[in-house]
Design brief:
Two copies of one chain form a homodimer. The first copy, chain A, is built from ten helices and 18 strands. Chain A is α/β, with parallel strands linked by helices. In chain A, a hairpin with a 2-residue loop joins strand 7 and strand 8.
């Protein structure tokens, strides 16, 4: 194509740029976060008026108070101790109000909150980065859910090549935890980068990944679902009601297998979930022992019914475990961090499976009930699927 | 499916919920923003320590100072005058630091900044809402760009039914302005809701909408492109260089027409762009007069070359306009707000087209160089396409 119109245009756009908002870091030489050579990280906030500035991040234990930042020449600063390579989320507290770091444009949504993202380098986070490799597509897709009487939304990852060929693919269903939604695995779990990178390296098979919304009262994530004053309010009771679990089996899987080019046998279906999603994974595979050949239960075990005041039909559960054992899944994986508050529930789940004779693989990581572990588990498990 | 495992689970999830972060508005009875019956809007922020709190929003003229909020019992409050029905973006200034409203979970990214979203009701914003209608899918898709020597990303909207049938569709290419990227039209322009709603009402034809990244130095939006220390830095000069324009013609259109079910004639291609994207729309259609039957130039006219110090080959431009006129596009639309800082450039563009005999339709709205106008123009123009 010949370029006929030769407008030397740079100054025009200087004007246009001036009319868009400029960011704080473009106006000020504030760098935050700054990853230092000794693996500490320095955070900075410029404000003359504030009386108190703190930082709170996921490198800190859950109940630890936020760390005070120190003021010098109107710049408030805090430097962490040495941090392991990981993806962290953090916010500042400015005069008691939780705010984002104005110098960091990387923000993700965690439920109804927004947090800054910080990824420190090293082997542990090598698979989290967007690299110059073939990328899959990520689609926000609506599907009918007769089970829940709604149109509902999910995210669907199709691997590199899906648009270019006519191949069929296996499908991984990835379930999130309480407080999350269909955005969680991509925003906080780095699922797209992990899959892109593992596939590019030949470590994982090409697969479709389906990330559902596990809250049965919700059509889609906040502010993206239809406004409906009559909609059911979020409630904890509905989460354990099998309503989402039933909709995954009756609505989601048939939609995916009809609308995408998928294999449709159990050896080409996997399901992984953490926390609430780990319980849903148990529920779904207990009730449908021949649906998935690959099952991963992350950071969730058997409920402590005595402590929780819940009822539990041990005999029915035994029958389910026996049926699952007979179905011989190629992988039944259980993983949890040593410091997870649900650790003992996993001890109990393993004891039940041992008693009933269900074979499983057990992995114990460091750490607690965190995205750091769930990303790690996905990175470990994706290469094991469909082989 | 029979439900065999009957765990009364609600209390379990109360514990799980307690372990997730709770939002400020869940802890406190702060409502913000609150749309009042008289069409004013009240903003609130709870903080005991702050010395100064202000609000800044897109209902205010560009150069207007932020509005001070007033403190009463630790709650800082500001109520606007009557606001027209519109989608607004706003932030607070807390002791001089730009922050998000902790009580409003609706946040979108505008370039490298994040802002809260507020949509006031009424006819004007009726098409912006997510409604209980069939929804199209929105996909983040990577494509090869030999022209720009990169893998690049775009957003592709496929209309309701695309996954269910084998129909072919016409394609609308939507271009954004300086400071934006492939996320802008969906995050700030409500493109998905506008298309979903117009299609559901039978006002617009089903179409694929392609939203590109118009910055030729950028593979994808911030924090979603590969880390590349050698990458070209953002620069204004490259924006008018025809590099993006050439890549749209050579890379994007062939990819879309090969990988999606599209019609491939000019009567089934439309291009609309605003500001920088309006200039790119002119460049692309000037150089390729037979590519698009529907052309919309929003909030951008002819450069004031004397003032900007740019060069301009009037004779070549004349030849291009004549060729375009001969190609007889079904619609050549020019729109701008009365208060737009580029208003005179549109006066000049119209004069050139009048002098050269190119037929166009002109629409003048109220308002300035704003998303309010670009969403309005899309809502007006989408029903005119492919008919």
């Amino acid at each position: 194509m010949k370029i006929n119109l030769r407008i030397k245009i740079s100054q025009v756009f200087l004007l246009l740029f001036a009319c868009t908002h400029l960011t704080a870091q473009q106006r000020k030489p504030i760098v935050s976060p700054q990853i230092n050579a000794d693996n500490t990280v320095t955070f900075r906030l410029l404000t003359k008026l504030a009386t108190k500035v703190e930082v709170k991040g996921t490198w800190m234990p859950v109940n630890m108070p936020s760390s005070p930042m120190v003021k010098e020449d109107s710049v408030w600063t805090y430097t962490t101790g040495k941090l392991d390579a990981d993806m962290y989320r953090y916010t500042f507290l400015l005069d008691g109000v939780e705010i984002l770091d104005p110098a960091n444009s990387w923000v993700e949504r965690a439920g109804v909150r927004h947090e800054n993202i910080l990824i420190t380098g090293g082997d542990r986070t090598n698979e989290y980065a967007v690299k110059d490799v073939p990328h899959g597509s990520l689609s926000k897709v609506w599907y009918p859910s007769p089970t829940l009487h709604m149109k509902r939304r999910m995210y669907v990852y199709t691997p590199p090549g899906y648009l270019e060929n006519n191949n069929k693919y296996p499908v991984l269903y990835l379930l999130h935890g309480a407080g999350g939604d269909e955005n969680s695995w991509t925003a906080l779990g780095r699922a797209v980068s992990i899959l892109d990178n593992l596939i590019a390296e030949g470590k994982a098979k090409e697969m479709i990944v389906v990330m559902t919304n596990g809250n049965p009262w919700q059509a889609a994530s906040p502010n993206e679902e239809p406004v409906n004053p009559d909609a059911e309010k979020p409630n904890t009771a509905s989460m354990g009601s099998m309503r989402f679990e039933n909709s995954l089996v009756a609505d989601v899987i048939p939609f995916i297998e009809k609308r995408y080019r998928t294999y449709t046998d159990k050896n080409n279906r996997a399901i992984l979930g953490f926390s609430m999603g780990g319980l849903q994974t148990q529920h779904i595979t207990n009730a449908n022992p021949n649906l998935f050949a690959y099952i991963g239960v992350m950071s969730m075990g058997l409920m402590d019914n005595d402590r929780m005041g819940t009822t539990y039909n041990k005999e029915e559960h035994s029958q389910q475990i026996k049926a699952l054992s007979k179905a011989s899944p190629k992988l039944y994986w259980i993983g949890i961090g040593k410091d997870d508050f649900l650790y003992s529930s996993v001890v109990n789940l393993r004891k039940r499976y041992d008693d009933e004779g269900l074979k499983y693989e057990y992995f114990e990581s460091t750490g607690a009930h965190t995205w750091s572990n769930w990303s790690l588990y996905l990175d470990m498990l994706a290469p094991r699927l469909f082989k």
